Amino acid sequence: MHADDFGFGTQIRKSPYFDATVRWGAQGFSVYNHMYIPRDFGDPEQNFWNLVNEAILCDVAVERQVEITGPDAARFVQMMTPRDLSKMAVGQCKYILITNAEGGILNDPILLRLAENHFWISLADSDILLWAQGLAVHSGMDVQICEPDVSPLQLQGPKSGEIMQALFGDSIMDLKYYWFREMDLDGIPLIVSRTGWSSELGYEIYLRDSAHGDALWERIMATGMDYGLKPGHTSSIRRIEGGMLSYHADADIHTNPFELGMDRLVSLDMEAEFIGKAALRRIRDEGVTRKQIGLIIDCEPLKGPNTTFWAVQKDGETVGKVTSAVYSPRLGQTIALAMVSADMAHLGLALDVLTPSGPTGATVVERPFYDPKKQLAVA
């Protein structure tokens, strides 16, 4: 299939790796942050095994960066998130939530601090560039906000460390989890971080000049071949096993951090003001009416992830919805993230799920479903 065979016109952007991914077997794409993202390299189960046994390279240029610079950049970024950034060092990454005035989640990105007053917000799927520029207008703060020419790749899986060592030399091996450094490869300017959306050992490679997209993809694949590297796509199976959020599925503007059990990302006692502080304080004090849970669903293996929200019921009454479900070949079970009434969020509780093939039983369980302490990614 030729790269020109995909498309809905020019309003949906193509990444710098688009042609390379088609050459390497991408058969289907979805749209994320107004860009194409490869979602199909054949068998998603094989993609999962490639990820957990060796390594995969994924085009995630859709993780657009919002760059914030200027004398007030640090104060402005803190205003955007309830997570305390006061001890964040240059060279460090943090997983943050961006909240609105009602405490609703607008995005759950990775924040990178490139310099004292230079930040990138590496986005999930929503228009935070516009939100940030809008906030800046009446903030009285001296900041510049733009989308730089930056396009990440994810190299994920247990062999990713060895591949990175082969690409960059031994010095890369002391890069700690959730830290990054500026590097180059054959003169291609990069930032390399120990982060990713897989719950496995992994790296993100941020290309800082889109003209080199093809060369960078080919260079990494050529080096990785000896280690079993395959082209791939972010794995729904692995991210649900890891209890990782997919924005618009497991969380949206009407979801607050406490419903997700993400209290650790909300620092209500810090002096700094941030958007949503009063609302989040009220939600904390009053308690939540819904909670995210993990479910094991008693059904035949799913052919792919759910494409609609499935009702969750107790004694014939709807008490919530399944937001993400998938069959895990490793666990031999259909696993799901769901949002349910807080009084249903008890481990071991039996519930019913209305799947497309009919109602079926389900049990509330701990999440993440696999490697709950995230030792694979941190090791």
Q: Would you give the CATH topology of the domain at 3-64 and 150-239?
A: Gyrase A, domain 2
CATH architecture of the domain at 3-64 and 150-239: 2-Layer Sandwich
CATH class of the domain at 3-64 and 150-239: Alpha Beta
Please compute the radius of gyration using only Cα atoms. 21 Å
Distance between the termini: 39 Å
> What's the helical proportion of residues?
10-25%
Strand content: 25-35%
Question: Helix/strand/pairing class, anyone?
Answer: alpha+beta
Question: Can you summarize the main beta sheet?
Answer: 6 strands, mixed
Order of helices and strands: HEEHEEHEEEEEHEEHEEEHEHHEEEEEEH
Shape: globular
Question: Going by CATH, what is the homologous superfamily of the domain at 3-64 and 150-239?
Answer: Probable tRNA modification gtpase trme, domain 1
How many β-strand runs? 21
Poorly predicted ranges (pLDDT <50, ≥5 residues)?
none
* Total helical elements: 9
Nearest-integer average pLDDT: 96
Strand order of the largest sheet: 12-13-14-11-3-15
